[in-house]
Q: What sequence folds into this?
């Protein structure tokens, strides 16, 4: 079988590798689609918990090919050969203090398929069956968003109550598009999405009842001031989905006194920002991060099946596995690219 393999950061090829077969409690999944996201650029550079040699790919849709003994899916249901599934890449040890406290996403030994173990940019993948979830009947073009949606479902739990809150999301990539829909689903009173790319904003507004604002990342302060002036006030919740330090630095400008600021986009590990502790103190701001999830796939899939989440038109680029390098280049530099997928 073929797989993308990095032996060291920044250096990869698509090569033949040994195909594994499932033992007890695991399944072999044939990959039909795997999404690319900004995290893959960080992994390319050796960041984000990357362990080498590495096969990335953590947003995956596939079909069950073989089933090991005693295997059930993440909700305890039996699996069948030929069944369409999605894979939760995230797992925890179940034994550390964080897991015992009911916070497995903070696990000391957190592991990720596609970062610390081989991922879905391959023809096949053997995974623990408990990390597999039924996606029967879902359009693969929606199912491929299960992993980022699960991470957002986790954030929604942490942000409650959201009812009636005014929220601004910075960044209209696929994550930003999903965030706006989940925020509306959870009762946010008004959602503003800001991005330099009008086409991405149009796609987002076609899918959800939101306001959109075109901003200039070369003038973050001026853009934020314009957002505030246009709206006539600041926001209860401010969410960064860009991972850009220049944007994150200025997030307090958008927050009301007593507001909540969320670092959601993945920043470079070397990035450092300056924040005024007096401002946080005086304005009673809450600054929080939201990393990932371990248990939220059922919530995301339920939202899909209810028709609450739509991603029509967000996938703009499709590449075969052997064209992974071209896909990575598009992810890095093609402004017309919204969502890129590797398709089997």
A:
């Amino acid at each position: 079988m073929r797989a993308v393999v990095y032996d060291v950061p920044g250096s990869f090829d698509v090569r033949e590798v040994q195909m594994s077969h499932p033992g007890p409690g695991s399944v072999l999944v044939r990959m039909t689609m795997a999404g690319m996201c900004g995290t893959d650029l960080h992994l390319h550079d050796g960041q984000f918990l990357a362990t080498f040699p590495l096969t990335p790919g953590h947003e995956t849709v596939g079909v069950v090919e073989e089933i090991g003994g005693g295997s059930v899916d993440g909700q305890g249901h039996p699996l069948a050969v030929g069944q369409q599934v999605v894979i939760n890449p995230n797992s925890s040890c179940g034994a550390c203090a964080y897991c015992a406290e009911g916070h497995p996403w903070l696990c000391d030994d957190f592991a990720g398929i596609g970062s610390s173990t081989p991922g879905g940019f391959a023809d096949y993948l053997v995974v623990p069956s408990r990390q597999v979830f039924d996606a029967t009947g879902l359009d693969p073009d929606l199912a491929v968003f299960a992993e980022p949606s699960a991470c957002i479902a986790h954030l929604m739990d942490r942000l409650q109550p959201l009812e009636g809150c005014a929220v601004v999301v910075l960044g209209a990539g696929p994550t930003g598009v999903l965030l706006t829909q989940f925020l509306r689903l959870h009762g946010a009173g008004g959602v503003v999405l800001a991005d330099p790319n009008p086409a991405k904003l149009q796609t987002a507004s076609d899918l959800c009842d939101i306001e959109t604002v075109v901003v200039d990342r070369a003038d973050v302060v001026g853009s934020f001031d314009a957002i505030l002036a246009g709206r006539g006030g600041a926001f209860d919740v401010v969410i960064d989905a860009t991972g850009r330090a220049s944007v994150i630095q200025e997030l307090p400008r958008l927050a009301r006194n007593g507001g909540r600021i969320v670092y959601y986009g993945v920043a470079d590990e070397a990035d450092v920002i300056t924040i005024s502790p007096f401002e946080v103190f005086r304005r009673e701001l809450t600054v929080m991060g939201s990393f990932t999830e371990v248990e939220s796939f059922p919530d995301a899939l339920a939202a899909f099946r209810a028709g609450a989440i739509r991603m029509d038109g967000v996938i703009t680029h499709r590449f075969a596995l052997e064209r992974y390098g071209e896909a990575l280049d598009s992810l890095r530099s093609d402004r017309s690219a919204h969502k890129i997928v590797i398709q089997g």
